[in-house]
Amino acid sequence: MRKLAPYFRFLVILWVVVTVVFVSLRLTPGDPALLLLGPTAGRQDTAERLADIRERYGLNRPIIIQYGIYLSDIVTADLGKSNRSERRVSELVKTAAPVTISLILLSMLLAIPISIYLGLTAAQKRERPYDRSVRTLATLAMATPSFWVGLLLVNFFSIRLGLLPPSGYIKLFVDPIGYFSHMMLPVVTLALYLIGTLTRFVYTETADTLEQDYIRVSRAMGISSKRILFQFVARNSLTPMIIIVGVEVGTLIGGAVIVEEVFGLPGLGRLLLNAVLGRDYPVVQGTVLSITVVVILLNILAEFVYKLLNPRSKI
Amino acid sequence: MFIDKIKSFLLTGTVAASLTIAPISAIADTQTITVGLSGDIDNFDPATNQLISFQAAFATTIFDSLVGYDSQLNIVPRLAKSYNISSDARIFKFDLVDGASFHDGSPVNANAVISSLKRSAELGGVFGGPLQSVEKFEAPTNNTVKLTLKSSYAPFLTALTNVAIIAPSSFENAVSAPVGSGPFLFESWTPNDSIILSRNDKYWGEKPAFSRLIFKPIPDPQVAMTNLYAGAIDIVAEPSTAVIAQVDTSKAQVIRPSGSNSIVYIEMMGTKGTLANVHLRRALAHGFDRETIKSVAYGGQGQSEASPLPTSSFVYTELGGYPYNLEKAREEFELSGAPEGIEIGLEVLAGFPEAEQMGRVWQASLSKIGIKLNVVVSELSVWLDRYVSRNYDMTWNFFGVSPDPHSFFDVILRPHLSGEYQNQKVIDLVKEGIETSDNMKRKQIYAELQEIMVKDLPVMAVQSRPIASIANKSINGLELNPLGWPLYAQSSKSN
Predict the structure, then answer these.
(1) CATH class for domain B262-464?
(2) What was the pLDDT predicted at A314?
């Protein structure tokens, strides 16, 4: 029974997310049928068309029935069709997901080594100008709005230098060079925030570890400080980072919405944002559900890896 | 040593990264024109998508209509090479161009055109609505379409400019795969990324000078402009008023139409009934400082007139209106009997900063006569909810008035006429206006209607909206009509 608990928890979280999204969408003002017709939807001669739309997308049914249909569709792995484009939600998510996954994965690949290096070295040079600069810059990176950073990067690298494209997306397998050149600015923009957060985390953990007795002993034994830092300290202070990275995925998806908007990337964030603005219920529900599943799975994976590396933990 | 390893790793990474950098080359391609749109399009059915941005992008590219507009909004033949209208504006006969075909290869003949028109009539709405007045659809020959209306309808030809003709085979899938007969054919749509059209090499008319037309949704105006300056797009189709004023003309060109038929209105009669008293509406109008609003909100551009019709309309009448005068505003306010300190809400749509600026200027003036104006900015879905149910004190709105004056009375005024603005005289005049085919008589009718509009103020005209497209200097021959539709097919791109 205890072994089944994590699965049960997983299902409960999913159910809560699905229900909260369903209910909050219906509580938000704005009628999807009106949005489809525009400002002339109020005319008497469009009343019939409005009724057609409501009927076609099941918007005229009682909320509880809509909810029941939605839940039963999820169980049969059917995310439904967009109210606007009539495309299958699963197809829309499938097209948009690789963009967001690339963006997040590349940002992590860029941010993690940099944060580790900066965090470790700053902690070692505590209270020296290097440490203060790193910490200040890390805070700045966390506090600077991605939207602004993005525009600044475009201004410099695309307009001034003409080196990198300011927007758009090319699939990796279609044109790898085009893919990387299009992803570079968005990845740097998103990674900057992550570098800020992770550097501060690594710094705090390392500073704590450096105070431990075994480090003092190692120093007394004459082991070089570089070796102490990158072999002994790193191992202890970096393991908790796995959990943090898992948690940060959720935050990064939030950041991806903004970055995708600035760089015109057709990812999940943009799909979700436009669906919310257009009150495209099935797309919002389907996208949130997919993101939730991925985030939960990643967090479970992070916990698993952490346990593997640190068998004594009680997470 | 470890640090050295990390250093060398980072260095290698940088070198590898810099090798992947490819210079931007999109602009060098003179066969592709890329346009930034303010939002994505997800419904490509011209009979059901009534959004202005959809019309502006596709009415003259993917689709053809029987008649269309030139850059001055004159009605010109398109799929109908000629037409004949009976003197009572009841029978409309169209001779179709020879050799036109839809993008699926099927011929554009009388039967196909009639099926498409009937479908539009069935779907109704603003575009298809006028077709519901057709009593008989006939095809006397394979190339002639004859439409007999139930009664005279003078604006019918103008109404047909908005009715796209689509291939009968595409009726079912028009939302996602439109098939028209225009100079470009629909190739693909990737949500939130691009809409790709390619040249219709079998187009019956003059073929475009370039082979691909790509639309990219870029909602943020600042991002759109950075993309334009960087050369990733060639044209920003619908820049906001503030953006037009900030264009760096050393890098890009601003393309304006000969005039603007896009008029900004304040609709003053909602179901809340706050402004039911005409004196209160007049007080608000006298407190509306047109000069300041024009210079603050619209950068000094556009024409600020009392008439709700554009100055280019053949029935336009110059009227005195309500000059900015707080004394008179106070007098009218007192006549209205409304309490001192009354709160009035003004609904404004987000994404139009000029509308909010207008509201702020108005707010400051009205506060001097004891009226508290609350400017409420809402996103589209919320604004639309209130607009359609008319659940407001007053609302900002704008509309592209077609060359026939009826379009204002049909689209903007009609909901009020069946609601809070009860005026039989106006209803009769509007009916007379559409049933009269003689232009001199129509002029008189619409002159009277304009006078009543200004006197009663169910809707107050603010001014014409400055409309433009912003294009890179490599774009040639692009023109906009006064509705703000860029005529893409006639443009070209040089190196």
Answers:
(1) alpha beta
(2) 57
